[in-house]
Amino acid sequence: MEITPFEFKSRLVLTELLGRRAATLPELVEGIRSVPLSSIYHHTHRFLQQHHFLSPEPPNDFAYWVTNMLNDEIAGEKLASIDVTQFLKLSDLRQRFLILMEEYLGTAINVNRQSPEGEEFHFMSSRIFVVPTGKIAGNIKEFRDFLKVVSIHSIYFHMFEAKLRLEKGDNDFSIWLRSAGKEEEAEQISRLDPYTFTLEGLRERLLKIVNNATS
Predict the structure, then answer these.
(1) Dist CA 117 CA 210 (whole Å)
(2) Burial class (CB in 10 A: 0-12, 13-18, 19+), 195
(3) Is the pTM higher than 0.85?
(4) How far is the C-alpha of 2 from the C-alpha of 24, rounded, in Å?
(5) Where are the alpha helices (DSSP H) in the chain?
């Protein structure tokens, strides 16, 4: 069976301020409604990128700000409860945030409490630059060997960004393994909840699965 080579890629990130901020929960909701989808991705994945040694990861930016700056623990818990792994499209993820918060705003009291001065929520976005690593695997064993040494940024790109930001419907590793006839291993990786691992822990789990494919 001829296998299409797998090219490991990595990413560089440029964070941009969008010039929009929120001091109350209704203002945050309106921001979530109107900012570009790249901002939704940034604020739901920034902790994963910057705190990849922590497990479990801290909550998304919206939940963190509402809980700690507005002191609204109920709204913060609702925002933190959203399971990002359920979504294949950022537009659907945005809509879930909006539905939860609109329901909450319709029943809660004191929803216009202000954040402390200087602690407003600043909407940001991430501009992603995809870069080659020079590592191209022509077979399963080469794939495994490169997986051992590529940076965590490469693992992040193929596991997280491919599925949600690029809306491929699955991670790059599973897509490639299926094309190589390794359906069982591809399915095992697809079923993983990558948000419950550190990125190094995720690498170790991936290697265990891929090792089975080489035996």
Answers:
(1) 51
(2) middle
(3) no
(4) 57
(5) 25-34, 37-50, 61-68, 73-80, 90-105, 140-149, 152-156, 172-179, 183-191, 199-214
- Provide the 10 A C-beta neighbour count for residue 192: 18
User: Rounded to whole angstroms, how far apart are CA atoms 68 and 121?
Assistant: 11
Domain that holds residue 206: 6-11+130-214
Considering the domain architecture, whether residues 116 and 184 belong to the same structural domain is answered as no
Q: What is the pLDDT of residues 67-117, one digit of tens each?
A: 999 999 999 999 999 988 788 899 999 999 999 999 999 988 888 899 999
List, for residues 18-56, the tens digit of each pLDDT value: 999 999 999 999 999 999 999 999 999 876 655 444 444
Q: Please write down the HEC assignment for all residues of 97-113.
A: HHHHHHHHHCCCCCCCC
Q: Which of 66, 100, 125 is the last residue of a domain?
A: 125
